[in-house]
Write a structure and sequence with these properties.
The structure is a homodimer. By secondary structure, chain A is mainly beta. In chain A, about 10% of the residues lie in helices and about 35% in strands. Chain A has helices at about 10, 40-50, and strands at about 20-30, 35-40, 55-60, 65, 75-80, 90-95, 110. In chain A, strand 1 (about 20-30) and strand 2 (about 35-40) form a beta hairpin. The longest helix of chain A has 10 residues, at about 40-50. The termini of chain A are far apart. The interface of A and B includes residues 23, 32, 49, 88 and 109 of A. Strand 7 (about 110) of chain A pairs antiparallel with strand 5 (about 75-80) of chain B, so a sheet runs across the interface.
Amino acid sequence: MERMSLDPEIAARLKRNPEGLVPAIAQQYDTGEVLMLAWMNDEALHRTLTTGRATYWSRSRQEFWVKGDTSGHVQHVKSVALDCDGDTLLVRVDQVGAACHTGERTCFDADVLA
Amino acid sequence: MERMSLDPEIAARLKRNPEGLVPAIAQQYDTGEVLMLAWMNDEALHRTLTTGRATYWSRSRQEFWVKGDTSGHVQHVKSVALDCDGDTLLVRVDQVGAACHTGERTCFDADVLA
């Protein structure tokens, strides 16, 4: 039977910020491009692990955000890793189209400081 | 004359969390490996941009952390980009040795969830 919520063994290792969120880095699995950073709560991580679609918690809208549901720019999940401190996720995806809402391929393309 | 603090035009674009910090993703510039995520305040970003050594703010020790000063595992900065929302940095570096304090090459090598 499919779990209805995040695996308790994973949940026990997660270190969340005061809002219950963990930063998730989305990376294109084959080219290595860092696409964007967004945030997940336990349920977003559970949905990401079980649906194969990268799913975040939108801090501005305060709702789940299945990447690509509006734009078509879906992220198909290839792997998910938790870092050594348990406070950051790395989500390797196959990004359809642009990752950034500006139309750029990644959210880091437009503003190079150095 | 070298600036003593972060360029005000950059500072004006930064969106910091309540602790005055911005997450910084460190990526190996040539292989694309995502090495780690750490945090910068304005001064850490200024030092990173001007010294060529990735410099973070350690939330646990509440002090500046010049990556590699203790371990020798220096990060030589190749480029720094700010994302579209102004709330995440991508720091491309040349990582000497292991990025992770556990001795792994990256902080995401040990705990693959899926």
